[in-house]
Structure formats: structure tokens, C-alpha cells
Amino acid sequence: MIAATATHIGFFVAAGGWIAMFIANLFLPRRGSSPEQRSVIRELATGFRFIRGHRVLLMLMGFGWIGLLPAYVDQLGGGAREVGFVFSSAGIGALSGIVVAGRLSPRRHAGRLMLGAAAAFSATMLFVANSPSLWLGMGLAVVAHFGNGMFNISALVAVQLRVPDAIRGRVMGVFAISQSIGLLGGLWTDALAAAIGLRAGMMVGPVVLRVLIFTVFATQRKVRELHEDTVLDG
Question: Is residue 32 part of a domain?
């Protein structure tokens, strides 16, 4: 849409999507509510305590390169149109990864699948950072976010299956916060890019992520041996 019209049109359409979601929420059926007043902080604390006591969930919840995207495209000679194309490439890859993950049945290899998908994402992002061509970078972004999409949806399903109904909202609220707060990665990735250069700054996050993945794989057997059937977790 940015390529066909203008940048501000893309922003207006994106805002319209959020408005549509807000309106849809107004018409969701009510399931009843508790008459007692509850503290949001106390409810979130309940979710944090449950996660802290279940290491598998903690590992599944966890470097943003999105904040660097305009500078990356600019360095390769692109503009607003190309920024839209790169975002679209990442979106196509992520959607494809979600669809494929939804059709897989990894059974006893669920943990390895998730860690492998995250490792593939971080490895491909190293190639994206060093791409000599914007078009090659777009193709690599599709591959990278295919792995990212597979990991995210697999982790979300794994968490949902392991959370009791009584505190599902609180735990999933924490999970949603952990996903959204990743955007704060732009604070330090942008600082690194300014200090050591754009491409080197983009590489730091994927390298750190790979170290974390291999550390989890080597030390966290419950995550490594995660089973699709929660009863058979390693």
C-alpha cells in the first residue's frame, strides 16, 4: 500500500485495523465477572509466581531489528516504498511459519522444533545484516521470519496447554507483555548501531539469541524434551 499510494495511507489503514478490533471486542459475549474488586498488580503477580514456579513457561517467554529497519533500507539505497516491501517480506515469512507450525504434529520433538526454529531465525538474521542487496535481504527476511513465526505460535500453544483455566488470563497477560516488551530492544540495538555501525549493531542481537538458545538446549532438559502431549513432558 505504501508503494501504491503513500506512507500515511499505510498508517491510516493500520490504525483502522486496531479500531476494527476494538469495536469487535465491544460485541464479545460476556461470561460474567466477579463482584469483588481486584488489584491488577496483584493479579499480574499471581501470573508471575506461576511462571516462576514452572521453568518451561519461563523459558518459552524468552532483539529487535525492526527499529533499525528504515536505516537498514536507507543504507542499501531504498526509501519508504522499500521499507514497506521489507516489512511485507517479514510478514509473509511469519504467516507461512505460523501456517506450517499449525499443520505439524511434532509430538515428542516439540521442544527441539521450537528451539530449532528460533536458531534458524537468529542464524538467517546474521545473513540479513550482511546482505549486499536489498532484494536479497528481503528474501532472507522471509526465511528468517518463517522460523520466527514457527517459534512464536509453537511457544504460544505450548504455554496455553500448560496453564490451568483458573489463572489462564493472568499468565497469558504476562506472556503478552513479554512479547510486546521486545520492542524495547530498539533502545539498545539503536545505541549499538550508532556506536559500532549499523550492520554490526544488527548482528549483536542474533548472536546473543543464539548463545541463549544453545544454553537452553544444553541445560534445560524440560524445554529440550518438551512433548506435544503435556502428560509426556520430559
Answer: no
